Each structure stands twice: as C-alpha cells, then as structure tokens.
Amino acid sequence: MQIFITGLGAISCIGQNVEEHLDALLAEKSGIKKGIHPYSQRYLVGEIPLSNDELIAQFQLKVGGSRTGLLACVAAKEAFSGHAHHPEIRTGIISGTSVGGMDISEVHYRNFMENHTHDVAQYSEHSSGNSSERIAQELGVGDFITTISTACSSAANAIMLGARMIRAGKIDRAIVGGTDALTEFTINGFRSLMIFDEEWCRPFDESRKGLNLGEGAGYIVLESEKSRRISNSVALAQLKGWSNASDAYHQTASSPEGYGATLSISEALKVAQLHPDAIDYINAHGTATPNNDLSESKAIKTVFGNSIPPFSSTKAFTGHTLAAAGGLEAVFSVLAIQKGYLFANLNHKNVIEETQLQPVVKTTKVERVRNVLSNSFGFGGNNSTIIIGEL
Amino acid sequence: MSACIKMITSIGHQDSFLKENCWEHLVPLTNETEVISPDYKSYIPPASLRRFSPVLRMALTAAQVCQNSVEQPFDAISVGTSLGCLRDTEKFLQTFITATGDTLSPTAFIQSTHNTIAGAISMALGNHSYNMTHTQNSLSFETALMDGLLCIAEGKENVLVGAADEAIDFLNELKPTVISSDLPFTSGATFMVLQPQSNTNSGKTIVDCVVYFNQDIENCIDQFLANNRVDKSAVELVLNAGNIPSNIGQKQIEYQQYTGLYYSSSAFAMHLANDFNLSEGNYALIVNHQQEGKLGLTLLQ
Amino acid sequence: MSELKETLKTQIISQLSLEDLTPADIADDMPLFAEDGLGLDSIDALEFIVLLESNYGLKIADPSQGREIFHSVNSLADFIEKNRN
C-alpha cells in the first residue's frame, strides 16, 4: 500500500511556515544566534522570536498552555490546512516530544523551591501526552492519538507509526511529526553533558565540538489511497521506508561503529524495497557532537560502501530541535524532492579525518531527487530512519 | 489485532511478583502502602543499579524476568509510561535550580527522558530490535499495547510490552486541585511477552485493544464488542477505573483499589485479567476511564 | 596527601552512588575506568568534573582531558594538590 504525503507544516528559528524554511535553506541563512532569555543568553541557540502570546495571536490558535503544544499546533495546522474533515476518514495524531510541558513546570517548581508558593493548577500542563491532544483540539480531529517520547528520534518514530497504522488499516490518515520548546531544563541538561559548542556548530567537521540547541515543530500528513480518494488531497511525495533499531550500547553515546544506525538505515531500505543506489540525498542526524557525527559517518559508509550519496546535516540552520528534528527534516526531505535541491551542511571546512566523508556544503540545485533518507538518533540508543520518495 | 500472553509479571504494591496467581495475595491498598520490592541485585548489575530510580528498577527487573521466560530475544519492545522517570526529573530540576557552580551533575538529566526505561531494557538485554516509548496520559499503556499488537500483526513473534510509572512525594501537591482522588499515589511496573496466536499457547489471548477520545463510553463499548463479535452477556469480568455503565460484565471490579493511582495502572489490570479463571467462551474486559474524554478498552479471552 | 585520598574516596562513592563500596574497597592506584578496576563509564567521568568543581573549585573545561586526571585516586589527588591554592 502506498503512503502519500499530502501536507507539510514547520516552525523553527529559520521560518514560521514551510515557505520561509525553503527560502532560508536556499539562501543558506541559519537562524542560530545568542539566546534572548536569562537561561539561554549564554549560548548560541535556535530560538523562535515569538512569545507564547504572540504565537497564539499570530496563528489564531484556539488553545493556550505549554509552548511545546503551541508550536505543535502552529505546524500541524499548516500541514493540515485545506484537508477535509470527513466521517469516513479515520485520522490519527501521532506526535513526538521530549520536553512536554516542562517549560511551565520548571517555572512553578522554582517558585515552589524558592518561595514555597506555586500555582499547582499549572502542573496539569506538564504531561508529554498533552501536546498531541492539543493538536486534536486545534484541528478538530483525532480518532487515535498517541505521543512518542524517544528523545531526538521521536518525530521519526511518530512518522513510522503513522505509516504502520495506515498500512494495517487502523487509520486512513495521520498527522505525524514532533515538537519541542527550548527550556531551562533542556539547556541545563545538555550543559551537564558538556556537549554544547560555544560557537556555531559544525556538523561533520573534524573540529566539531558539540551542538547548538533549537526549538520548533515539524509535521507531515500521511494518507492512504482510500483517504485521498475521499479527501481529494494533492500528493507531494511518498513515504516509502522506515525503521527503528536499538544501539544497546550506552545511555547517551552511540556505539563507535554506529551499529544501531547501520541497522536502522539498512532496514529502512528493505522496507522501501530500494537499493542503496536509489538514494539521492541523505539528510543526516548530524548533531555536530564528536560522537554522533563519527558514528553516523561509519554507519553510512557501512551501508553505502563506495557509493555514498550526497549528504548533509541541516542542524547548523535550525539547531538541534530534539523531538521536532525528525519532523522538520521530513519536511526538508519533501522539499528536496519537490524542488530538486540538496541542502547545505553549513559551517563546514574540514572532513572528519577518520572517515573522509565530504558533505554537501552549498545548497545545490539538481535535476532530480528520487529518494531521500533521513536519520534521527535519540538518547538511549534509539535509532530511526525514514525514506521519502518522489511520486 | 490479537496476541497470546506468554508471560506477564508485575512489581508494585501488591505481592504479585513471581507468584503463580496474583489474585491470591491481593489486598486493597491503604494510604500507608509501599512498593513490595524484590531483591533487585539478583536482576540488575551493581554498575547500573546504583543509578536506577524505583521505576527503572521495577521495569528492568520485570523485563528481565520476561526475557528469562522465553528462549528468543525480543523482536520488538514497546513501553508505556505517563510521567516517565519522575524522580530523576525532579532531581535534575533541583540540581539546576540550586546550582552555584558552573558544572551540573548529569546523571539525573540523562535518566529523565521518558525512554530511559525502554532504552535501559534494550541495553540490559543486549537487544537491538524496535524500541518504542508511548506517553499518552491515562492511555499510555493502551497505546504501547496497540503498538505491540501491531508488531505481532506485522509478523513479529516475540514482543515485550509493558508499562511503568513511579510516585514521588511532590505529586501530593497536585491533590485536590489537579487530581481529586482518595487513592494514594503509587508506583508500578507490569511487563508481558506477546506472541502470535497459536494452538499451543495456554495463556490468555488479547483479542483487541482500542482507544477512544471524546466519545460516549457506552457507544464505544457496544461498538468495540460488536466489532469483535462478542455478545455483552459473554463478558464475565470487567476491570475498570473511572465511571462505567453498570450493565456490562457479570462482575465489575475497580482495579485501582489494588494498584493505587498511576496512569499506566491498566497494565496491572491486564495481569489481573490474565490470572482470572474465566469460564469457557467468556471474556474479560478492561475499561480504563481514568480521565474524562479518554477511554481504553482491552478484551481478553 | 593520604587524608586527601581518603576524603576523595568518600566523595567518589557519594557522587557516583557507589552504594555498595567503602573507601577500603578503592585502592589508591586502582584504575577507576578499567573493566578490571572500578569499571566506571563516561557518565561517571562527567560526575568527576562536578566533584572537582564543587569540592575543590577546580574546573575542567574539556571532558576529554578528564580521563588522565581521573585515572586513579593517586592521579586525582596529584591533580588537586598541584592546582588548588
């Protein structure tokens, strides 16, 4: 059964809708800069320059609450715009998040610790499951709702589950992707791991030091043929392959040889029934940490051998948006196919010595992009790969 | 989507761990209830155990017991948790809120992500298969179970499904404003091995599991049973949380009197249903209606 | 110096939650990160950095420097003696 992609939605530091994202990718314009909040101003981050109130007003959102939920609603609304509500189309919402409502909880917990008074009602925002339910409320759909929380691979896993449920005939259409807001908790968390780069991150560069965090949300709409017959939606691309595998090596680091990544890449190709040669572009996870980029490079080499397709990480544009990354990058993958572009791996000077892999360093127009492979690797050794192809 | 339960085990406030039948030692909980912990050292190496919070200890141990019960490594793992590793989450909040220096202890942060449970299981078992974590409030277990059943439908043969949540003292701040209940906040982990239906399996079969949002509960139950061609009169046991229609089930038992209050407690209801002596041709139905507007229905035979 | 080493052992046990160990279990020259030593991992290496800063006011900016310094209680004590005022 073919799974069609019929909607795209995105918000991050490089754009507030899909078109703005495309413009930024073509102009090679990163959105990473010094943070504006007390907890972020020490770092280079990919912050969205809109407050929660501004998000609600600008995008005419029905619901308030956690920033994670608001970002989700913005992007999901864009992805779903123009799509029909119909009693015969069973629509699922499968969304990834790692932060959930922590943006609100951390403020009130601090009050609790410092003043011993706190607005207890606000903790009802905390749960990660809320962001998916917010999308349902915003869009007025949701026959099935679940939230995936596997750190940085969440959105890719959400996309995968949506496809599997459609193939199994449990739903006909799915709004899938992920969202995460930048929070003090997350910034301090990555600080404790000492994997920030104090400067602009350098994915796949020999001198890379670490990541820049970002925030955002990215969603796509998946539909079966049956759903499209009823909804009359326009197909943009196809979701052809997906896979999730465990590294089982370490709580945060990837195995040196990229075993889990090798598994997820290979398996996704099998699901797509594609030979590695059919991949025209890899949108890598490429967080710019010393560990990930080496490990991912090795996995790519293991699977693709001597015929490594053009590849890049777009995280020097957006920062690492954690659970949203796979969703945003799925949107970029569709754009690459639709428009015929390979997007730049910004801020790259020298290849990683050990692997000698050269990423695409300038956004490049190409004649055709048949299939894009997109990686998202999360803490706990959670490795996910999706493959998006032309119609 | 259906599957057989090859093995199921729980650690929590009931004396059920490794017991033949969890009904034998069942007691309604009081406010003073505590987790009945097994000797974790027998299941978890000290290098990991030293870091693990209660929810990780319970889940890892239950998962290990499940793996020990089958020869093959699991070909998929699906875990539900509504609030994840709460103790580590709170600990890291405290760490950075009170920090004076520049460095921060990372262990609590690393373990605060929801998929620490499933990830730690994959590491402990050396398992490289599909590994998923679902977190959907009161339906966290049901959505994880649906994923597990989907894996079986797709051809997987040995799937680990489970759910775990832990209580911390801070949760009491939420009563009565956010959560109004007389039940104590509790912790629990239930893990099970699912395999494809076969003639040789002697355990219960999970016939179906569906979740519903903002729909009339009575209509949902009727539709669910009808879709599975089950007559209402054949539902011998109903295990429920929250308000349900009175006209379903020959026997209705509110399971939270045995689990206490945690959102993935319907996993323990599954254990209760599994161990219940159903008459031939009859069914057990788990009705998870802990939160308004969210309903989980699971049918066992 | 030997007093520092004993204190360090207690601090290590606390910071790394090595609940089953006593200072007597950690020899001064035991390789802390080796499999046949204490078998610590990269998360512990980060905890050592926290330990050094909060107890001794010493900062290590680059985690990769850590492995040499944290090799054993001996090397840790040497580093502290050399660098603290």
Protein architecture, described:
The complex is a heterotrimer of chains A (391), B (301) and C (85). Chain A has 391 residues and is an alpha/beta fold. Chain A folds into 2 domains: 3-231, Peroxisomal Thiolase, Chain A, domain 1 (3-Layer(aba) Sandwich), CATH 3.40.47.10; 241-389, Peroxisomal Thiolase, Chain A, domain 1, CATH 3.40.47.10. In chain A, 35% of the residues lie in helices and 19% in strands. Chain A contains 12 helices and 14 strands. In chain A, the strands form 3 sheets. In chain A, strands 5-4-6-7-1-8-14-13-9-10 form a 10-stranded mixed β-sheet, sandwiched between helices. Chain A has a two-stranded antiparallel sheet with strand order 2-3. In chain A, strands 11-12 form a two-stranded antiparallel sheet. In chain A, helix 3 crosses helix 5 and helix 9 (259-272) packs across helix 10. The model of chain A has no long low-confidence stretch (mean pLDDT 97). By secondary structure, chain B is of the alpha/beta class. Chain B has a 10-stranded mixed β-sheet, with helices on both faces. In chain B, a hairpin with a 5-residue loop joins strand 9 (283-288) and strand 10 (294-300). Chain B is globular, with a radius of gyration of 19 Å. Chain C has a single domain (2-83), classed as Non-ribosomal Peptide Synthetase Peptidyl Carrier Protein, Chain A, CATH 1.10.1200.10. The longest helix of chain C is centred in the middle third of the chain and has 15 residues, at 42-56. Chain C is globular and about 30 Å long. The chains are: A alpha/beta (391), B alpha/beta (301), C mainly alpha (85). At the A-B interface, helix 4, helix 5, strand 5, helix 6 and helix 7 of A face helix 3, helix 5, strand 3 and helix 6 of B.
